[in-house]
Each structure stands twice: as C-alpha cells, then as structure tokens.
Amino acid sequence: MPTYLAFLRAVNLGAKRVFPKDDIRRVVESRGFTGVETYINTGNVRFTTMMRSQARIASALEAAFAADRGFEVPTIVFSQDEFRRVAGDVAELSAAHPGLARHYVYLLKSSPTPPQAAAVEATSSDKGRMVVRGRAAHALLGDGYEAGQVDPLAATKMLGIATNRTHTVVTALAERWC
C-alpha cells in the first residue's frame, strides 16, 4: 500500500488555529487512512492508503480537517519517493552552501510554471537565494538575513499554496519516514 506524507499549512500558530498532533492523527485515521504517524506539532503526518491521486487525498483530508476544526487547513501531499527527493535536494543544497544562517523549504501544493519558478529565483539578494526544484522552493539565507524575518526575499506570495519547514525538520522526517 502506498505511503504518503501530508503537511498542514498554518496550524498551531496562535490561539485560533490549534490542531494538536494527536487530533490530526485521530482525524486522519477516521477517514480510513492507516499506519498514521505524526511528528512534532507543526502539521506533519505520514499514512498509507490505497488512494493514488494526491489531489483526492488532499481534498479528503482538507474536508475532514475543516469538519473537525471549523477552519480550512490547506494540505500539501507528497509520495514517499517525492519527499525523499526533496530531502536529497536539501542535503545537496546545504552542502553546496556551507554556513547558511537558515535553510527553509517551502513545500508547494502544485509545481510552479517555468516563468513562476524563474520569478521566484529572481528574488535572490544579499540576504540569500531562492532555488526551486519541483514542488519545493528552498530559501538559502545567508549573512544578510536577520533572524525573525518572515519572508526576507519577498518570494512566498509567488509560491501559491505552500507551507515551510526548516532543513532540520525535512531531514528528520526523511530519516524517520522514508
């Protein structure tokens, strides 16, 4: 049975969008998904299903999450193999850019078009650079980056529906689930 990883956008960021990992696991299991696991409280969930369409999986989860929570929870779904490739890109890019202040990975609901990807990459500046690979955009932030900046390269609005994780979380998830 295929294994997928889902990443929930904008949960546990304040008092109104609370969705603890145990509740996420309960809701995913209630929809018939099996082998459900969560990792830290930022909306990371692994599961198996006979469903093959990532769009259908995301829709089913989004409907279940909204029914349970009372607010929309955009959900980005990756196959295990796709996520393994994202983690490989994280390792490659981190090795090629030693001394980064931060390496954020934006997981995208859909692949950007080549012009969109080029526009995102064109936001690179003295603060860092953006690299787009498939459904992941990497913010490689250097010395010009100041801690706490939400979108230092002004690229996130061009990414569409996305959620980000640090390179540390992506690496840990790949080691644990891939």
Radius of gyration: 16 Å
What string, H for helix and E for strand, traces the elements in order?
EHEEHEHEHEEEH
State the CATH topology of the largest domain. Alpha-Beta Plaits
Return the CATH architecture of the largest domain. 2-Layer Sandwich
Amount of beta strand: 25-35%
Which descriptor suits the 3D outline?
Answer: globular
Please, how many helices? 5
Termini separation (Å)?
14 Å
What is the CATH top level name of the largest domain?
Alpha Beta
Classify the secondary structure makeup into a structural class.
alpha+beta
Low-confidence stretches: none
Total number of distinct structural domains: 2
Report the strand count: 8
The residue-averaged pLDDT reads 95
The biggest beta sheet reads: 4 strands, antiparallel
Percent helix:
25-40%
Biggest sheet: strands side by side, in what order? 2-3-1-4
Provide structural commentary.
With 178 residues, the chain is an alpha+beta fold. It folds into two domains: 3-80, SP0830-like domains (Alpha-Beta Plaits, 2-Layer Sandwich), CATH 3.30.70.1280; 84-177, Alpha-Beta Plaits (2-Layer Sandwich). It has helices spanning 21-30, 54-69, 80-96, 114-121, 167-177, and strands at 3-8, 34-39, 44-48, 75-79, 102-108, 128-133, 136-141, 162-166. A four-stranded antiparallel β-sheet has the order 2-3-1-4. The radius of gyration is 16 Å and the shape is globular. It starts with a strand and ends with a helix. The model has no long low-confidence stretch (mean pLDDT 95).
Short description:
The chain has 178 residues and is an alpha+beta fold.
